[in-house]
Amino acid sequence: MHDPFSHSMIKLLDDSKICIDSSSPTSNCDTDHSTHSDLSSNNETMESVDLENGPSFGHQDDVSITWENLAVTVSNRKHGFRSILQGLTGYAQPGEVLAIMGPSGCGKTTLLDALAGRLDSSTKHTGEVLINGRKQPLAYGTSAYVTQDDVITWTLTVREAVFYSAQLQLPSSMSSSKKKERAETTIKEMGLQDVMDTRIGGWGNKGLSGGQKRRVSICMEVLTRPKLLFLDEPTSGLDSAASYYVMKRMIDLARQDRMTIIASIHQPSSQVFQLFHNLCLLSSGRTVYFGRSDRAYKFFESNGFPCPSHQNPSDHYLHTINTDFDEDMDQVFHANKTTEEAISFLVRSYKSSHTCQQIQRHVAEICSLDREELKKGSQANFISQCLILTRRSFVNMYRDLGYYWLRLAIYIALCSGLGSARGSLLMFTASFLTIMAIGGFPSFVEDMKVFQRERLNGHYRPAAFVVSNTISSAPFLLAISLIPGAITYSLVGLQQGCAHFIFFASTLLACMMLVETLMLIVASIMPNFLMGLITGAGIQGLMILSGGFFRLPHDLPLVFWRYPLYYIAFHRYAYQGLFKNEFEGLTFPAAQVLQGGGAAYIKGEEILRNIWQVEMGYSKWMDLAMLFAMVAFYRLMLLIVLGTVEKFKPPC
Ligand SMILES: Nc1ncnc2c1ncn2[C@@H]1O[C@H](COP(=O)(O)OP(=O)(O)OP(=O)(O)O)[C@@H](O)[C@H]1O
User: Fold this and answer.
1) Cβ of 74 below 6 Å from ligand 1
2) What transmembrane ranges does the database entry give (predicted)?
3) Ligand 1 within 6 A of 120 CB?
4) Where do runs of H (alpha helix) occur along 373-497?
5) Rounded to the nearest whole angstrom, what is the distance from the C-alpha of residue 346 to the centroid of ligand 1?
């Protein structure tokens, strides 16, 4: 088969062979002879393999990505538009690892986000990003992204976290034992065998180290062997040996499974640097160099910035183009130029170089390949997703003391001490116990972060998350409604009868479910924890005030408080249902209720109508039905909000 790439690739690789022979960094920057000779031979072996076999482009399921004149700007109220990336062109292809390097803030993450189609809505981009020469979305199973932050359910052990992830991502047709085997092999490949049964940890519960968490995040995304893998600083927090082995594993994966890997990286050791096939060196969003990583040395040397002996070449490149500490810079890096001048010179020199033209030709050749559109990979079906997520969520809720247990303890303590006028007591039970859901907000936020990360990588559908969260939280909410509820009920001596208690506990359960859903919605919308906490508490405070207790329904100001808040606030249905449950069918001594003479006794219904201004046109069961209908509506809202936020909120 005629392969349009073979020719250009051999030319490119031919060039790199020349580089290795004549100006390999190892020959000039030899800090450690034994290591370097090993690496040098490694590199040559790698190149000779490439030269003989060359990455073939014949596989139909291969994924190459190209970008041409890619520019990203962000709008800023004060300064208008700010450019983050400017006219970048490059490619990444199967079997290879592309390293994106540059000083902090140069645009590495933005480039990864732009390629992965994850730029947030505040940015604008121009230029073309093509997958196999086509403009197409990255379907599930074809790509995965390991972000800089390690967002993992912290109560799980490494084995559990990776296995749950394998169950979610790998197809239902694969047996559970095979999934388990894949999970454990991947854990071992990442050097995590000694901490397999250690909890991830967080929240003051020290579990894994930062570097170990990094490796767990990588494990979870390479399980499916995605054809295109984005890694944002995969080696941050790792020691040099661990960095080497992790990156070596990535190279092996790229070769064995024909994966296309793009990794942003900060400060690779010379050993790690030599593992990369291609290098994209950025400074302030501009390309300083793009091409074979081992040829960068020659590029810098021929432009008057030779790498001093005994220096790691990647350190040299980064020192040369770092503008952050201009005043402290040693002039030796810049050949008597300022850093800005040096960078502009290198950028211009690269643009007019033969390498740049070759890259553009190569990009055009990849784009001319006629490949089918990417197909969505198979994964666990919807029912399996719901079951796995429910199990994982239940384990998390059970192990996280702050999720429910702490609240349950406080509710029990509070309810044991309750005793007051009936109306106030009922209001207090329905309002205070629900507002305490704020105590679980930190855990909701963590849950939402995990959800957002997993959703961006397409692990499951939002509906599976909503269903599993509803099911897994139900037993805890039931316990919270029943135990403190029963204590209050019996200690205070509320109206006797099984049906009355069931109504009381069901109302509390519905309120708890409503507040939980409200807080999940808030956690998914608000950009940070503190703002979420304030918003959640604020909304609940407003609803309590308009529920018809602190100001009776007829006294509520019409604008806002009565229309619409009184009708939206679930507290109204909770208070009125609980009042009816307590007062209907009883009579009370009139002296307790009314001043002066008149009848000796007053009916509960009259108290409801005349004192609490309760709407008596329908039964208490209608109030309860309204509450459960609101639970269904709020859950639906959660689903819609999750889907909408996904489109607009920047990735975590
Ligand atoms: N959505 C955005 N709004 C405003 N500024 C942004 C946005 N995204 C990126 N930036 C800015 O663009 C620049 C590049 O950011 P980016 O995160 O891509 O850099 P980086 O090279 O990955 O940095 P680091 O190595 O420190 O992670 C930074 O100055 C950043 O503040």
Assistant:
1) yes
2) 425-445, 466-487, 499-522, 529-550, 624-645
3) yes
4) 382-399, 406-416, 422-435, 441-456, 462-492
5) 22
**Angle at Cα 441 formed by Cα 438 and Cα 446, nearest 5°?**
175
Q: Give the atom of ligand 1 at the shortest distance from the alpha carbon of 282.
A: 21
pLDDT at 419: 57
Q: Ligand 1 within 6 A of 282 CB?
A: no
Cα–Cα distance for residue pair 234/247, rounded to 1 Å: 8
Residue nearest atom 9 of ligand 1, based on CA coordinates: 110
Query: What DSSP assignment string belongs to 150-217?
Result: ----TTSBHHHHHHHHHHHHS-TTS-HHHHHHHHHHHHHHTT-GGGTTSB--BTTB--S-HHHHHHHH
How crowded is residue 606: how many other Cβ atoms within 10 Å of its Cβ?
A: 17
- Is residue 107 within 6 Å of ligand 1 at its C-beta? yes
Which two three-digit tokens encode residue 559? 């604008």
Residue nearest to atom 28 of ligand 1 (CA): 105
Output the six-digit token pair for 522.
């808030």
* CA atoms of 645 and 478, how far apart (whole Å): 30
d(CA 509, CA 506) in angstroms, rounded, equals 5
Question: How many CB atoms are closer than 10 A to CB 78?
Answer: 5
User: Does the CB atom of residue 122 touch ligand 1 within 6 A?
Assistant: yes
Low-confidence ranges of the chain (pLDDT < 50): 1-56, 332, 651-652
Termini Cα distance of the chain = 44
Cβ pair 160, 395 in contact under 8 A: yes
Nearest to 611 by CA among 627, 626, 595: 595
The whole-angstrom separation of Cα 305 and Cα 187 is: 42
The rounded distance, in Å, linking the Cα atoms of 66 and 61 is 16
Give nearest CA residue, ligand 1 atom 10. 84
Asked if residues 520 and 511 have their Cβ atoms less than 8 Å apart, the reply is: no
Bridge partners of 157? 199
**Domain limits of the chain?**
152-224, 382-554+630-648
Instruction: Report residue 649 as tokens.
Output: 């909120």
In the numeric block, the tokens 């999750």 are attached to 642
SS3 of the chain: helix, strand, coil, percent, to 5: 60, 15, 30
pLDDT at 218: 95
Beta-ladder partners of 263: 99, 231
pLDDT digits over 25-42, tens only?
Answer: 333 333 333 333 333 333
Q: Is the CB of 108 under 6 A from ligand 1?
A: yes
| 236 in contact with ligand 1, CB cutoff 6 A | no
Alpha carbon of 266 to ligand 1 centroid (Å): 14
Task: Kindly state if the Cβ of 224 falls inside 6 Å of ligand 1.
Answer: no
Q: Which residue has the tokens 């031979």?
A: 41
pTM equals 0.80
Query: Is ligand 1 within 6 A of the CB of residue 577?
Result: no
Kindly provide the ipTM of the predicted complex, given to two decimals: 0.96
> Is any ligand 1 atom within 6 A of the Cβ of residue 110?
yes
Nearest CA to ligand 1 atom 13: 105
CA 167, CA 162: separation in Å to the nearest integer?
9
